[in-house]
Amino acid sequence: MSLQDNNLLQSSPEERVFHTANLSQLSFLVTGGAGFIGGHIAEYLLKHQAKKVRVLDNMVNGKQSTIDILKQYPAFEFMQGDIRDQATCQQACNGIDYVSHQAALGSVPRSIAEPVYFNDVNVGGFVNMLKAAVDNNVKQFVYASSSSVYGDEPTLPKKEERVGNCLSPYAATKKTNELYAQVFADVYGLKTLGFRYFNIFGPRQDPDGAYAAVIPLFVKGLMKELPVHINGDGGQTRDFTFVDNAVQVNVKAMLTDNAAAINKVYNVAVGENFSVNYLFEACKKQLQSEAQPVHREARAGDIRNSLADISLAQNLLGYQPCKRFEDGLVETIEFFKQTYSMDN
Prior knowledge:
There is one protein chain. This protein has 12 helices and 13 strands. The chain has a 7-stranded parallel β-sheet with strand order 3-2-1-4-5-6-11, with helices on both faces. Strands 7-10 form a two-stranded parallel sheet. The protein has a two-stranded parallel ribbon with strand order 8-13. The termini are far apart. The chain is an alpha/beta fold. The model is unreliable at about 1-15 (pLDDT under 50). It has a single domain, classed as Rossmann fold, CATH 3.40.50.720.
């Protein structure tokens, strides 16, 4: 099935349904659920009448505005706490059927500046969550990995079985997560599925802070007529992936009964890549801006080119991208237009 033929691509946000099971008897935990990807996952589950959706977030990167969206649903529970605390993780998993673990520190450059902090949260916190899931008989545990684990492996497209050397502490933490997930599957029988996200973007992604992602940074800069920086020559390519695709794979993976799909790691992307220069021009066009970017030195630890082979997730989880880059960019920019118009 081609992307163009896939009816998911033609559906509106309200019509996109990624599950067939009845969620009304099922309880979910989304760690990092006040954040960008986790918030969208929690909102989907709540919209589709899950029995309970508990969010665990320490609100370091989480947003109160996301909590405000989620708390309109009666099935929502909020638990403020840190995954580095074992007792908190145990409490969060109590009475839960399925876990979507999105809580983590992101950003390659920040990990280079703060490697010990990243290890404590992304590795120590991850192991705490795995142990709590085992102790509380969680049915399936899905988690966020990253395309950064491919490191210096140059071959395109990226295939799950072929990884290189990590180029940053962030990448090392995510690779370690995958190792621990496999160990907990082998030793404790926990059913795990991991997702190597490729540059997820969309509405509600944070444009502020020193380590904000490229798309919200570009959009905010162009809208506010601020300098927009491109690292290096801008020829680096990324498989930009709209957030609904991440929601889809989390939901399908938590609920899958395909034994062949369990205890694997999957690329989550669209299977198309675009340069950062192309992204900038697309943002300019959508915003009718004449601004020019400011080029600066390339960032240490960044991968030059990124493009995913998504066939494993397609074949084992029934994953199909529901929105491609340019359509997702339009929706994202429209969100930020509304946000900034309300701020003014």
